[in-house]
Amino acid sequence: MLDQFDVAVIGAGMAGIIAARDLSNKGFSVVLIEARDRLGGRTYTEQALGSHIDLGGGYVHWTQANVWRELHRYGISIFPPPTANKVYWLAQDKVHSGTEADYFSLVDPLIARLVADARARFPMPFDISIVDNSDIEKQSLEDRISSLNLSPYERDVLDGVLSGIVHSYEEQGVAQLLLCVAAYFGDYKAFFETASFWSIEGGTRALVNAIMGETKAELHLSSPVRSIFDDGTRVKVTTRAGLEVYARRAIVALPLNTLQDLQFTPDVSPRARAFIDQKNPVMGGKLWVRVKGHIEPFTGFAPVGKHPINAVRTEQYHNGDTLIMCILSDAAAIQGDDKHAVQEALRLFVPDIEVVDTASHNWAVDEFSKGGWMFHRPGSLTEAAPLMRQPHGLVHFAGSDIAAMDVGAIEGALETGVAAARDVYAALSTS
Question: Which residue intervals define the domain Amine oxidase in the entry (predicted)?
Answer without folding.
Answer: 14-424
